[in-house]
Amino acid sequence: MTEPDKTPSLESSTNSAPGNGAGLVADGLKRRRLLKLGASGASVALTLTSRPARAWHCNTTSAWGSAQLAPTASTTAREGSHEISDECWSITEWCNNTAHGSLGQPWPHLGCNNTTQINAYTVGTLYQPYGGIPSGLTSSNKLMDKLKNGTQFQKYMLCARLNAKFVTSVQTCLRNNLVDQLPLMAGGSYSPPNLKGVVWNQTDIMNYLTSNWMVQP
User: Which InterPro entries match (predicted)?
Assistant: First the structure.
């Protein structure tokens, strides 16, 4: 005698495990998407796995300042922020001329391809198009020397200027009403636009730059 088929039907399986039907539908949709991708699936997988492990949000100074004053304003800050792949040189990478992701080594972007050229590059050359040399620095100072031996505030400001020069997303975050805010921070005391009575000191400025992923140690 043939034994009855005891394999449960899809309907009975779904009924016996609440919520399982939704999972099966989701799995089916995933499989269909993968099948639809076909030959392009390999390139899609490569794109996903090669992306940076994190993405960062950077805010304008006014949006960030508002969020610090009122927790509810953090929602507005997030809505106005720019989500960007983690592509920005750190202070250490500038000091060691270390490549960062697809950006490569930093100093060749300044036209410096050997140690002699790197050590000769001045702060004044970097700031010539922008103005706003950080407090305590002069145009004749060697940039590499100050990246290594300057004050913490000077290092952060120099790195921010360098990254903003070559990373478009950093330029965007540092602009309020189309005005570059870095020169306004150079003296170590800064008032974000539209935040009456708010004044940042050097620590506040560095916290803004590092919390918004524009400068990392």
Answer: TAT_signal
